Amino acid sequence: MKRSILLTILAAALVIPSAQAQQKATSTQTEIGGLLISPLMQRLTVKPGQSTDVTFVADNPRQLRESAQFELVSFTLEEGNYRTIFGAENPRDCAVWFPNKVQEIQVEPGQRKDIHLKFDVPRGCSGAYWCMLRVTPHPDGSTTKSMVTYEIPLVLIAGKNVKPTLKVSTPTISHVPGAKNGFLVF
């Protein structure tokens, strides 16, 4: 009798932490809610005048149907600190190539869905063009109602891929009045 009680207590001691660990893993996953999106960067070579699409995968690891908004936006980088500025027009913007800039999607529990974003490459374009795909999962069923936005750069190379050029120069050192030997010493 004592032995069966001891075995029962031992079995319970082993099962309860395992169940708590499994519950914790599930709750961690549901704290944010939403979808897993891949890839997190796209670079495609396209032909001017071509109609094509770019594909992303939305994976729903949760037990609830999940939805998200896919939105293509123009962006540029601020000089000096490279902070992203959305909605800024630039001569290399390809967001205008996409007829549907906003798309709502739903993914069933435990399923994956390929998301095809169709676009038309204008004739006469050449070189690198870019835009940002912003994916905002709707946190339905999230325990904290957290909002997450994936910002996925999309780079399209049209025609011949021209390597970017970078001009690097050194600062000019000039005479500084009052400094030792006429120059600043560090």
Task: Please characterize this protein's 3D structure.
With 186 residues, the chain is α+β, with helices and mostly antiparallel strands. It has a domain at 33-158: Immunoglobulin-like (Sandwich), CATH 2.60.40.10. Helices cover 17% and strands 36% of the residues. It has one helix and ten strands, in the order αββββββββββ. It has a five-stranded mixed sheet with strand order 2-10-9-4-7, with no helix packed on it. Strands 1-3-8 form a three-stranded antiparallel sheet, with no helix packed on it. Strands 5-6 form a two-stranded antiparallel sheet. A hairpin with a 6-residue loop joins strand 5 (75-77) and strand 6. The protein is extended, with a radius of gyration of 27 Å. The N and C termini lie far apart (84 Å).
User: How would a textbook summarize the main sheet?
Assistant: 5 strands, mixed
Name of the CATH architecture of one domain:
Sandwich
Low-confidence stretches: 5-32
Number of strands: 10
> Helices and strands, in N-to-C order?
HEEEEEEEEEE
Strand order of the largest sheet: 2-10-9-4-7
As a percent range, the share of helical residues equals 10-25%
Number of helices: 1
Strand-residue fraction?
Answer: 35-45%
Named CATH topology of one domain? Immunoglobulin-like
User: Which superfamily, in CATH terms, is the homologous superfamily of one domain?
Assistant: Immunoglobulins
